[in-house]
């Protein structure tokens, strides 16, 4: 694998503009961000951040593009998204490697992320012919009442580092077929993935003679606040931490904009005494250490029945002993690096805080600092026995720290699972139908995602994705999540020769 050749094929140079309206890449007065690989600490390339003038140029083009794009029939917009999916198929290997190299997740997961992009394109193509509204019966004679869905305008997409390409595509593929144009502010920790994606879509748009501004890119931390407060952006789709989500949500609400919030998780698996323990081990270990614990859906807590607690704990400890930590591009390794040394610091602090609160570590953590781990970003996945109420257990630490909690009854297990501020993903491992149904019932899991005999991590694009409580309540991806990208209009047409008022109100002149 030659990373230089891969970067060239993706259109990435040593220094790149981070401001684009499509094929037009703007030189700005902004500073350069150097993107370092957490895999080996090497500088990959740099990206120039957008300044005030660049932001305004992008917004102007986006406004103009929307006036055109909204009139393109939805199935024709879908055809462009279909071609985008094909372009992603052609670039899957290269983009998958870049995701792995710049973000640090395993190559398999990098390729999987690009596959998710392809899948959402396929979904959106079909959707482009199914943006249905209802027809209602009017209470007045010779009146017809129905609803239709119109695009909203410019959709601002602010994304996190841990899914540096897929989250953008979940939003864009749907937003585009709905008739919106998109402005993307990616994480400054993974700007090259964003530059590569923008090159791919820009070529598709150019091949179809589309104007600039349908897909725009703005790299830079300061861009986030501009998007939050910009009245020209009726919808902001934000993916990131609860801390930042709170700021975004308040700012957008103040100007009566809409937001889709996809925030932090604190996901648990309940391991019943009626679980298939072998399946449960695989689900738990992959959920906890996959992407080095940096998924919003990572498994952070295992709530284990007391009868099998010791047996399951021993199996887990044994499984952790077999984990190989190292270069995520080497498919023999299970665990790659954290995103940067600041994340390593947070991991170390969380372990120290946990110990202070009484956490008993059955697999010790630690930072790996031998020659093989030059970037300083590799850490050991660890396991601690805790109480659910510990402060550290109530928080999301974006690292591979797994907490074990014991339970007696299923009611108690569900209360523990729900007893955190976040509400993204949850699961129960059980072969007992009554337990499974209770977990999924109205008195069961309070999360946006609740699984049976599957871990918490990973989701298919066909379902609506998102969570409750401090996870923000947003939904993206499949099902009817598209409705969040459109405005609903109710239309009543009177084809009689009188003007009857609703509710039988009389108004005689
Ligand atoms: P983060 O909150 O630090 O950053 C997310 C994005 O917000 C980045 O692009 C960042 O530059 C931007 N940002 C920072 N300050 C801003 C501001 N004031 N206004 C607007 N934007 C601002 O998150 P992160 O460290 O990149 O990602 C990890 C977090 O994301 C975790 O909490 C994880 O659970 C969450 N996440 C959630 C989902 C989900 O679907 N629920 C998916 C992926 C990640």
TrEMBL record:
Coiled-coil regions listed in the entry: none
Keyword Metal-binding: no
PROSITE patterns: ALDEHYDE_DEHYDR_GLU
Domain of life: Bacteria
CDD domains linked to this entry: ALDH_F7_AASADH
EC nos: 1.2.1.3
Keywords: NAD, Oxidoreductase
Record's protein name: aldehyde dehydrogenase (NAD(+))
Organism: Pedobacter frigoris
